[in-house]
Amino acid sequence: MSNLNKDTLFLVFKELQDDSKSLFSCLMVSRLWCDTSIPILWRNPWSYSDINYTNKSYLFIILTRYLSDDIKKFITERIHLDSVVVKSLQFDYLSFCRSINVDTINIIFSIGSPLAYNKFFMQQEFYSFFMRKCPELKYLDMSSIKHQIFYFPEAKARLESLYELKCDTSIDSSYFYGLSQFCQYIQKLIIINIDTKINHGIVKLIEVQKNLKHFEWKDDFDDDLIENPYKEVFRALEKKANSLNYLKIRPFYIEYRLIQEALINFYKLKVLVIDGYLFIAEEQLEQLRMIAYHELEVIKVDYNQLDIISSIIENSGRCLKKILFKPYDIVDLDDFDDVDFNKSSLNFIRKVYENCPYIEYLSIIFPSSKEHFIEFEKLLKICQNLKSLLIVLWNRDEVETYEKNGEELLKILIRSAPTNLKEIRPGDEFKFSLESLEDFLEKWRGRRALSIFTIDPIYIREDYKKLIDKYKGDGVIKNFENLHYLDFIKYCDNAS
């Protein structure tokens, strides 16, 4: 690594752009490594989740270094940082920056003064300077913003290049009207809905976009809606169907017919994520089964019916790589009798192996019948790209079959698991006896190291821990964890 040239190092470090710890370590290796990693570290320096910005006074010092002499005097007179504010900087840090995160910047300037006026004054001067200094603005997270940055003289040139915008609906509509004059080529728009009324400015901002590809909407409020915001938002969004390829929505309340009509129009989607129960009206099911996404690669639809997911799979263009849902939240479990669910789950397995040759991540649920296990094994044999599997059985509390189910699953995996399989998440309806687990791990030897995540506390017993540690040491197991249920299914959120 020490002999790599700067261009090669830059490509390597770019892969670490979301990993602040690794980038900080690179700073210490050599001057070349430092010079190469600083531009990447400062491209979006406000977004690292593992950094506590409330105690990073050096960031405050760096930011104030860019302010005018009058502002520095104002700061030093009130904050007593005169010995460090005037220090010269080793790098022109803000020349590398392409982002604004309002919340983080507010936190950093709070280090200098707790007084609202002082903080506002320093932030205003910073944004004014940033608009002059920044070559282009790519990322803007403006939750809680109080500064009308689009009025700065250089704002038009900076905002025209905006790629990603994150905001919430508490911001006044007039602010979005101002942004919509300049920000018309946003490709990624993330909206947190914390208001119970329509924000018409957000609707306008969506309407003016000319190349919107990624849209996220998340409801985050407790009160009842005063006005229904979804109708205007989704009608504006439907007009972006020619470019939109990523849709993620987490609605608190939504009209089922409205989302159904919108989904039919989003024919270019590659990623569809819906957190929440949307489809209930029986008369709508037939139309929903006709939804076709020929470029779809990821589908994650929580609290839904297997038949609906199966239909989307069947109508896809055989590009699906991830099919994710929380198995215990499938509607069929509560609304269908055993016969209906058995039929529905069998159909789901078949639709996967008939239509998803490239599937990599899969959630699956079925009863422990011989026919279902046969079809499941057929899926494993056909879907050779499968990397990760979350598998749950629905047995109507037949606890006495759990160990038998576990033994059957392990036998199937030994016989037919794809060579790419690296992770399994079996529900607690599968119990692995010490003997069957040891036999499985011994036969798995020589294959790709396997990660196993369970929700059964039996595996924290001393005899199991001893066995697991042995095969970890041999490189057969990469990871074996007993998880809380919420962490067990979090995989569905992370993988999307």
Describe it for me?
By secondary structure, this protein is α/β, with parallel strands linked by helices. It has a domain at 1-41. 43% of the residues lie in helices and 13% in strands. It has a 14-stranded parallel β-sheet with strand order 1-2-3-4-5-6-7-8-9-10-11-12-13-14. Helix 12 links the parallel strand 5 (214-219) and strand 6. Helix 11 (200-207) runs parallel beside helix 12, helix 15 (306-314) packs parallel to helix 17 and helix 19 (402-416) runs parallel beside helix 20. It comes from Rhizophagus irregularis (strain DAOM 197198w).
Key features?
496 residues, alpha/beta
Give a brief outline of the structure.
The chain is of the alpha/beta class. It is 43% helix and 13% strand. Helix 13 links the parallel strand 6 and strand 7.
Helix content: 40-55%
Question: What value does the Rg take, in angstroms?
Answer: 27 Å
Subunit arrangement of the protein? single chain
Overall structural class, as computed from helix and strand content, comes to: alpha/beta
Question: Could you say which overall geometry the principal axes of the C-alpha atoms support?
Answer: globular
* Biggest pleated sheet: 14 strands, parallel
| Low-confidence region ranges | 82-86
Mean pLDDT: 85
Number of strands: 14
Beta strand %:
5-15%
Number of helices: 22
Question: Distance N terminus to C terminus?
Answer: 33 Å
Order of strands in the sheet with most strands = 1-2-3-4-5-6-7-8-9-10-11-12-13-14
Layout of secondary structure:
Elements lengths: L5 H9 L5 H8 L3 H11 L15 H9 L3 H11 L2 H4 L13 E3 H9 L5 H18 L5 E3 L13 H5 L4 E5 L4 H8 L7 E6 L6 H8 L6 E6 L10 H9 L7 E5 L5 H10 L5 E4 L10 H4 L9 E4 L4 H9 L7 E3 L7 H4 L2 H18 L5 E6 L3 H13 L5 E6 L8 H15 L6 E4 L7 H11 L5 E5 L7 H12 L3 E6 L2 H10 L2
Parallel strand pairs: 1-2, 2-3, 3-4, 4-5, 5-6, 6-7, 7-8, 8-9, 9-10, 10-11, 11-12, 12-13, 13-14
